[in-house]
Structures are given as structure tokens and as C-alpha cells.
Amino acid sequence: MRLANINGRLVLRAADGFIDVAKASDGRFGPDPQSVYACWPQFSTWVQAEARAQDGLEIIEPGIEAVWGPPVPSPRQIFAIGLNYRDHARESGVTVPEEPPVFTKFPTSLTGHLRDITLPEGSVDWEVELVVVMGSTCHRATRDTAWQHVAGLTLGQDLSERRLQLAGPVPQFSLGKSYPGFAPLGPELVTLEEFDDPDDLELGCNLQDDEVLQKGRTSDMVFDVPELIVRLSAVCPLLPGDLIFTGTPAGVGAGRSPQRFLAPGDVLVSWIEGIGTLTNRMVSA
Length: 285
Ligand code: ZN
Known about the structure:
Blueprint: E1 2-6, E2 9-14, E3 17-20, H1 21-24, H2 40-51, E4 59-60, E5 68-69, E6 78-81, H3 86-91, E7 102-103, E8 110-111, E9 116-119, E10 124-125, E11 128-134, H4 143-146, E12 150-157, E13 160-161, H5 162-165, H6 173-176, E14 183-184, E15 189-190, E16 202-207, E17 212-217, H7 225-233, E18 243-245, E19 267-272, E20 276-284
Parallel strand pairs: 6-18, 8-14, 9-20
Antiparallel strand pairs: 1-2, 1-5, 1-15, 2-3, 3-4, 6-7, 10-13, 11-12, 11-18, 16-17, 16-19, 19-20
The structure holds zinc ion.
């Protein structure tokens, strides 16, 4: 199953477009894309049993005017993990962590596919990341059951203004990574059965001139998805619709020589195997 948020409404991908979930379910699910995570098992059952069998449903083909919102627009919690790929820890000049460094991206930083992002003053960097979407409440999960709590996977950018992020006397990860638009997400949420191996997906990003900035594999994470769910849920109950940004591979702008950051007019194209391509244009304030 592949879900998206088009014009603020939850839609389900069909063979040749999208189906509006609220219309197809006679109002049982949707239209708010966030609402479905609170009743994820029932929604999944409905999709398997009914949505795919229904003929004659209106198919939406999003045109150029369509607004792609984040597939998870208002999560209660967003967790993000720093330094979760060895080569990124190396380029950042720090040792590989023994405990995952955790921060948040505040929910007002979420945006969607094909949306402009206003660059604040400073040095704004890219970080392509696999994003986990929780499908059930989970407290003190074990590795064996961790994946069962996941609704699906999507793609995000953990955009980061490095000056504020690294300002003293203590770093400001959560604030420096939470300007409006600093968490583009999507274009779709993809459920686990769509992947051959959800623990091993190629991911990367490039700019409009086709220069590859980052390219890696999620199998290179220091703490894989089950381990992150175990460690986060050992402290915080994870709630349906919560997000986990799982960290970025090497190739960020701050790790380059010379350093390079995003500029107005840059088009950032991010992708993950089996999920899709997320495109955002940077604009000046
Ligand atoms: Zn990150």
C-alpha cells in the first residue's frame, strides 16, 4: 500500500492514479491524513478487503496545481537520530556513538513534495533520511516485535542550519533543524510488504545539476530500525503516527572541503529505493 496527502486529503495509490480514502470508505477513514494512524489495523484491513476490490471509484491524477503535503502531517512525536552511519560520523569528526544521539524536529517543520523551502540566514545543509512511521503504541519493544509496530516507511530530509545547530555552550540540534519546511516528507508512505528487504534500501540526494551529494544504504546504519525502536521505546512510549528520522549517510555539505550549503534556486532531489523521489526548491526569504 502507498499513501499520500494531496490537497490535505488522504489518498491511496491505485494502478493509474490515487483514490480519495474518505470518499471510497464513505467517511469511515480520512480525509485527515493523520487520523488513519490511530486506527491503523482497521484501515489496513479495509484496504486489503475492500478498497482494492472496488470498481468505479474516482481516480485522481494530481496535476501541477496539486499540493503534496507530508503523508504524516501532525505527529505527536518526532524523533531524530544523529550520527547513525559510520562514514557520516567520520566526516563530522566524531567517534561512532555507543548510544544513539536523539533530538527532535518540531512538527511545524514538516512540509511535502514539490514545496518551496525558505532559507533562513546561516548555513543550511541537506541530510537525506529513511523515516519510520509508527502504526501502534509501543513501550519497551523488543527487537523481535519492533517491526510489527511500524505502519510504513517514507523519505525525509533533515534540513539543518549548522550555525544554530552547533552554537554554544551546548548544541541546538532540535532548534537548528526545525525552521519551517526543514522536514520535507514523502511523497508517499509505503507499507512493509512492498519491500524485498526493508533493512537494506539505497538512499541518496542530488542537486538540480545532477551532482550526487549523498548515496548510501540503510543496511549501514549503526543502530538499525528495530534497535532504534527498542532504545527509544525503552524511555518514551511510541505512539501511532509518530516519526523516527533514522539518520543520514555521508556527503553532507558541512563535511565537504570546501564546505557547501544550499542557496536560493537550488532544487534538492532526494530518493530512497522502493519509496520514491522527493523534490524541493530552496527560495530566499
Ligand atoms: Zn539527520
